[in-house]
Amino acid sequence: MSSPAGAGDSVGLGGPSAPPPGLFIHGVNVLDETGGFGGPLDVLVAAGVVRAVAKDLSPGASEVMLDGDGLWLLPGIFDCHLHTGLSSFDTLELLRTPFSRRVLETADVLRRTLAAGVTFVRDAGIADAGIRDGVAAGYVPGPTMQVSVVAIGSTGGHTDGFLTGPGLECSVDYSLPDYPGRPPNLADGPEEMRKTVRLALRSGADWIKLIATRGVLATSDGGFDPELSFEDLVAAVLEASRRHRPVMVHALGGEAIRWAILAGARSIEHGVFLTEADAAAMAARGCFLVPTLAIYERLAASARSGDLDPGRASRAIAVGEHLGDAVQIARAAGVKVALGTDFGHRIDHGRNLSELALLHRAGLSVEEALLAATSVGAELCGVADRLGRIAPGYQFDAILLDSEPTDLASLSEPGAVTGVFQRGTPIVRHPRLRNAAATTTLI
Ligand SMILES: [Zn+2]
Fold it and tell me: What is 77-380's CATH topology?
C-alpha cells in the first residue's frame, strides 16, 4: 500500500482540554457490521461522536473536511492482548533499566501504538491504573486503555520470576519490578486468590488476568500442566464478578483451558492447543478466544534462526507448528475471536495490525478478521455500545486506509494507516484533511 509522504508521523495530543472539531468526510467507503464496506457514504461527526452515516449529507457547521473519494474508513483497531509496559525480553537489560526509563518508554510505546491505528488496548499485565489514567488525562497520546495491572499466577509458576542465585523474589521474567502500590502477583489456594484479586482490583484493575499454564518463553521445562487449580480459578472469577470485573486466562492447552472455561473466564488467551471440546464449551458460555498469533510467529522465527536458547526454542517451534489451529477450531464451533498481539518488545510495538493477516491465514475471512479487530474486540471489552463501529451514536475512533484492505498483509507495516482519529480529533492527520491545523496539537 502506498503511504503518502508525511502520513503517520504526526501524532496529536488529544487530551480532554482539546475540544474535538466538527468533522465531515465526503464519499468514503465505510466498514459495516458484516465486515464488508458500504459506500461511498458521507460521515458527520460532532463533539467526537458520529451523528450520521448516509449518502448526500450536509456538512453543516463542520470545521474539518475530508474528501473521502477512494479512501476506506474503519473503526479504530482493538488490540485485546498486549503489554505496553514491556519493551524487551532480555533479563539483564530489564534488571539494569531504571523503572522511570521504562515508564517513559511505555509512553513511547503508547504513542506508536496509537499512530498504528490502535485506539483501544486491553493491557494484559504491567501497565497499571496510573498509566491508563495518565493517558486518559491527555499527558501523553495513547489508546484508550483497560488494564489488568498484574498477571496472577502461582508460586513456581509462569509469573514467578524468583531469582535462584541471589534468592530474591521477583515477578515474571523480571518484567515487572516491585514499586509502591504494585499489588502482588502470586496466589496459592482459593483463600489467597480471593485476597490477591481484591488487591488487584483495589489498585484499579479493569480485568483480572490469571496465568493457568506456562508460556512459550518459560525458562523451565514442563508441558502445559495447570498451574492454578480449578478452585483457584473459581475463586478468582467469583471475586472479580462481585465487582463486575471480567477474568482473562492465559492458557496454552490441556486441562487448564477446560477449567478456565468452566470457572467462567471471559476470554482464553493464546489457547494454542485448543480442542474441539474446549471450543464447544467456550461457544456455549460465550467465552472469547484471543489467539495472539503475531508474537508466536515471531518467536518461532527467532527460534529457527538460533536467537533463543534451546529450551525456549523447542517450545517456540512446537507452538509455531500449531499456529492458527485454534483459530480454525474456534471458528468452526462458533467461538468469537478477538485480535490480540501479545506484543511486549520494542521491535514489535507499532506493528499491531500484522495480526490481521495472520488471523486471515489461520482461517478467518477478511471480513471476519476486520470484525475481530473492531466490533468483536469492543464486545469482549464491554464497550460495544459506544465503540467498535462507524455508526450514529458511536464515539469517532477511526482509521483511514488509502486502498481497500483485501490484502491484509499490506497493513503489517507502520505507516499503512494514513489517518487516525480519536474521539473525533485527528491524531494522525491524513494529507487530505482540510482546516485541521487549528484544532490539532502536534508533539
Ligand atoms: Zn501476554
Answer: TIM Barrel (3.20.20)
